[in-house]
Prior knowledge:
By secondary structure, this protein is of the alpha+beta class.
Amino acid sequence: MLACKKRGASAEETNAVFMKGLVCLTQIKAANRSLCEETERVRDSTAEAKAQFDTAELSLQNLLYEKGHYLKEIRACQSFRSKYSDEDIGLMPEGEFLATAPEQFKVGIEDAHTRMLQRLDHEKHKRGEALKKVEALRTRRDALAASVAAKRAFLTTLEEQFMEIRDKAEPVRAKLGIPVMRRPPGQARCAELLPLPLYVAYVQLAAAQEAFDLPAEVSITGSLAEAEALSGRSGEGASAAEGDAEGMEVDDDKEDADLDAELEPGEHRPAKRPRSAGTALDQAHPLIVTAKAGADSGRPLMLRLRYVTRLKLVTADCADPADTPRLARLFDGDDGLTVPSEAAHLASGGQLSWEPTRSDRPYRWAQDLAGLDSLPPLDALGSAADCAALAAERLPQLRRKANAQTVLERLCALRGSA
């Protein structure tokens, strides 16, 4: 414009130059606006990329921290040593899982990871059921404990009532002149340690002697220490008791000392009872029930009852070997050589035969006295063709029982006929 004015250009030329300048100015403004817009776009994209980078870096740091934590926990689990071995608390073997697990735990087990998860779920299910059973058993145990406590309390009150009854019956006893039978000290403890068959025999003999005032004395002899030891071991389990009974040997010296203590002044101790080269099968309980028949005579007959634990038989003999053969004549047809129990035959593998040379024999009247009701061995009953003869001849014998009164009376009769 200045150059046009200095040169004195015409108005048309000046206007053309002016319009051209305006166009250039408009183009410069458009270029500047485009540059500003591009700068703003680049700034926004840079900020967005930076935010994405920061987010990715934060996620990476979190993952690295989690990885370190998991690796630490894995090392802690791998180095953990429990007091229970993997065999005790580990998962069931995979083969057993595949064979026994329900179908709901076998879905997608082709994959090793899924199979392990299913095994864990199955183990959790099984252990949950086992826990429920344990809780049920604990509840039952508590209920039984409460029941036992209630029964124990009832027995305590019952004992007090028995004492009252005894005190009230004392005038009647004194009026009728019934003598008071007092057991020697220690007999109650011995009676508690007796096996059930010997206890039944002891109670029956003692009751018959008191009720019928028979000339007899009933007592318990043997090794009290061994009986207490055997009773303590039997509390740990029935199988342990049988095993201890197998290896137990009766203290013969203690037994002889007990017998010497029961002899009257001036009476000599009979010769020791001959025993077979005892096997574990015929070992007897250390306590013996003794019935001294004809106690008012000069030389009474001393009956001894033993319990063979493994065979579950009661054997009888006399302290004096000279009196032992008389026991075979107490009841007709009962010489003690026939084992009266099929269970004894089975326990010995069917090879048991009682030796005639042994002094103690399992008389049937001894089993009846001890409450051991059993049928004779099958080979003694005959064949199936003899059923009519069996019903006519043997069954009445099986029904016939030897009671304590009869045994004591016949023992006293044997002593009187000696």
